[in-house]
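Page 37, continued from 36.
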């Protein structure tokens, strides 16, 4: 989790890089547009249109360029990487940016009037990004050499706590801060802290002490409050195995929050917007498939076309999930007589060659077309394109461990790691849960993209479907 200062610096760099990409694209177009005049025979017979014809590309390049750079860890640990690694990260960014541009051109019927502009843009923006990164690092190192520009910090706690804290500083933190004093909270009075604040013109005091020293910590924080100096409290005296601590405000009360799911962020907002846009595009593209499936179900088996069932959504909240009906209408009533043949360990029910499936239903399941109506659930906001698969309420009620419940902490999805990891070769629900928790603990937009890409051959070739 980034501190607010680091987060602000990151956002500033991303905004600057977005503008650099825009300028690089404009320069690339200018070079191509005036190529005949400037470079002679290279571009003489291939004129291109004015910049106005290319402006829609900026709507993709400006916001998504910095996002893809962040997903490639371009802004992570800049002091500990060389230009070669940055070059690889930029190249990967252009790969995903190219896919985004291609998808936008295809779905929105847009045109890229001259593809020669794109290589020029890539070369110019690569040079601009590398130069900006090197200049930023040079400025950072120059500031670090000047002690008067570094932040004066006092550490307060037991000698062991302050020692561990000092040795946990990253390379960037060491270059930005100057520890001017360490106060032993057990042996020294608060006046020693106050004197250190006066003597060194301190910017920040970091308190590192366990819950047994809360009274002394409160005295020190109160002294900082009077002096108008920022007081930071190390909160790792509450140990958690998985949950990540963040700070928030509830009303007027400051709260230390422990989360095991992704925090509210621009990435989650992009995921939500992508879900809705993807659902709309999917419903339009597969409208013909919907019609064929509806006719096939109606002709092959009496009963409704759509199967509705209560499933557990985020945090277990029930919602009605839609599927094309692939079973006979009495399937749920007949499940009790098939329980002895269940091939999954745990609360879920799955068997090979389920006799309740209709002939046309086998085709629907093998091609995963039976799941397509869940695009409506995604559009409604009950589901996501990627997330743990939603289970029936009665199966959720049989969960045996808290780990199994934790898979409900993210919005359920159309596809997931389980579906692209040989779903029907997995016979233990615990293995299924482990894949879901791996997804939750490592969630990113890039991971969602990888799962969606891997889902395509699973759907096209019916891999793992039954």
């Amino acid at each position: 989790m980034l501190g607010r200062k680091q987060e602000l610096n990151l956002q500033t760099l991303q905004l600057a890089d977005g503008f650099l990409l825009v300028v690089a694209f404009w320069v690339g177009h200018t070079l191509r547009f005036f190529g005949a005049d400037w470079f002679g025979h290279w571009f003489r017979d291939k004129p291109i249109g004015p910049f106005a014809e290319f402006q829609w590309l900026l709507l993709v390049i400006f916001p998504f360029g910095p996002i893809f750079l962040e997903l490639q860890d371009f802004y992570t640990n800049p002091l500990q990487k060389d230009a070669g690694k940055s070059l690889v990260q930029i190249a990967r960014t252009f790969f995903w940016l190219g896919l985004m541009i291609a998808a936008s051109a295809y779905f929105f019927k847009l045109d890229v009037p001259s593809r020669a502009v794109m290589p020029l843009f890539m070369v110019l923006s690569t040079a601009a990004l590398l130069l900006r990164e090197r200049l930023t690092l040079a400025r950072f190192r120059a500031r670090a050499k000047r002690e008067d520009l570094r932040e004066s910090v006092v550490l307060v706690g037991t000698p062991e706590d302050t020692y561990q804290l000092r040795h946990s500083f990253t390379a960037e933190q060491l270059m930005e801060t100057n520890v001017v004093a360490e106060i032993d909270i057990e042996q020294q009075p608060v006046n020693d802290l106050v004197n250190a604040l006066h003597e060194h013109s301190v910017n920040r005091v970091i308190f590192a002490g366990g819950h047994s020293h809360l009274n002394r910590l409160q005295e020190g924080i109160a002294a900082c409050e009077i002096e108008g100096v920022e007081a930071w409290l190390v909160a790792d005296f509450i140990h958690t195995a998985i949950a990540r601590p963040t700070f928030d405000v509830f009303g007027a009360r400051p709260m230390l929050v422990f989360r095991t799911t992704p925090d509210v962020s621009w990435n989650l907002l992009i995921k939500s917007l992508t879900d809705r846009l993807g659902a709309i595009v999917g419903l339009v593209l597969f409208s013909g498939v919907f019609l064929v499936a509806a006719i096939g179900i109606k002709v092959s088996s009496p009963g409704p076309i759509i199967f509705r069932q209560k499933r557990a959504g985020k945090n277990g909240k029930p919602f009605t999930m839609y599927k094309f009906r692939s079973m006979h209408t009495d399937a749920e009533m007949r499940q009790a007589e098939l329980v002895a043949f269940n091939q999954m360990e745990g609360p879920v029910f799955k068997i090979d060659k389920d006799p309740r499936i209709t002939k046309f239903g086998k085709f629907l399941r093998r091609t995963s077309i039976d799941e397509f109506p869940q695009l409506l659930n995604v559009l409604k906001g009950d589901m996501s394109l990627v997330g743990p698969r939603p289970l029936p309420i009665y199966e959720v009620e049989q969960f045996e461990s808290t780990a199994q419940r934790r898979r409900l902490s993210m919005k359920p999805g159309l596809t997931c790691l389980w579906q692209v990891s040989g779903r029907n070769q997995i016979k233990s629900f615990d293995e299924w849960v482990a894949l879901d928790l791996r997804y939750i603990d490592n969630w990113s937009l890039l991971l969602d993209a990888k799962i969606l890409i891997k889902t395509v051959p699973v759907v096209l070739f019916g891999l793992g479907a039954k």
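The CA atoms of residues 152 and 201 lie 7 Å apart. Flag for discussion at group meeting. The mean pLDDT is 86.
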